[in-house]
Amino acid sequence: MIDKQLRVVLAEDSVILREGMVELLIARGCAVVATAGTAPELLAAVAAHRPDVAVVDVRMPPTHTDEGIRAAIEIRATAPGVGILVFSQHVETAWAARLLAGGAAGIGYLLKERVARTSELVDALHRVATGGTALDPEIVNGLMHGGRRSRVDSLTTREREVLELMAQGHSNRSIAGLLVVSERAVEKHVASVFTKFDLPATEADNRRVKAVLAYLAETGA
Q1: Can you tell me the distance from the alpha carbon of 142 to that of 104, in angstroms, rounded to the nearest whole number?
Q2: Which of 88, 98, 219, 200 is nearest to 153 (CA)?
Q3: Strands, E, within the chain: which ranges?
Q4: For residues 103 and 99, what is the distance between their CA atoms, to the nearest angstrom?
Q5: What pLDDT does 150 receive?
Q6: Which residues form the HTH luxR-type domain (predicted)?
Q7: According to the model, what pLDDT value does residue 1 have?
């Protein structure tokens, strides 16, 4: 049970969806400190409230194209301590790659169908608020198979499965449970991914994030 109440700013231009999400988040113990219907309103709300997480729709007024992503990238630059969870109706791998280009820590990207599952949404919020990563499996799949791959091509099927789950923010223990294998087996696959991606151990070991970023860079998305 997570005791800390998350402070959330929610940006969604659909009033009905926005109000529904506010009710769901409050019911699950989150504090929605502000809502926004446009990117400028979102940026102002984040500056004023400094929430734990900003939940952002990719498509927002006036053009309903990439206003949300651009606002999220600006938040990353101006308020790096704020976690970002963006959501979209469709798999938008190019936009996901733009958001992740500055680092995967504290970033989430979910499809709207996943957002509708409250437990998954709240779990993702807590994950990004603590500097973790929460990527929708379909987004990860699109990033991994969307373009040129060299080191990614060298991975075995199981190693790719492990890497996808790593990108979604799962621990080795969680991956072991999902794949129904031992945690030691997962550790071996992770070590192999690090080796193939030429990621030696360092004093501040953040190779999991670097492994995810490495394959994102090679997709050319």
Answers
A1: 16
A2: 219
A3: 7-11, 31-36, 53-57, 83-88, 107-111, 133-135
A4: 8
A5: 59
A6: 148-208
A7: 37
* Same domain as 119, residue 36: yes
171, two tokens: 């621990």
54 strand-pairing partners: 9, 84
Same domain, 175 and 194: yes
CATH code of 118's domain: 3.40.50.2300
Domain extent, residue 171, equals 145-219
Residue 125 neighbours by CB distance under 10 Å: 23
In the sheet that 53-57 helps form, which strands lie side by side, from edge to edge? 31-36, 7-11, 53-57, 83-88, 107-111, 133-135
Residue 81's identity, in one-letter code, is G
- In this structure, the number of other CB atoms found within 10 A of the CB of residue 45 comes to 19
92 and 199 fall within a common domain: no
10-residue averages of pLDDT along the chain (221 residues): 77 90 92 96 96 93 86 92 90 78 85 80 92 84 60 81 84 92 92 82 68 64 39
Among 102, 118, 138, residue at a domain's last position = 138
Tell me if residue 111 falls in helix, strand or coil.
Answer: strand
- Classified as helix, coil or strand, 84 is strand
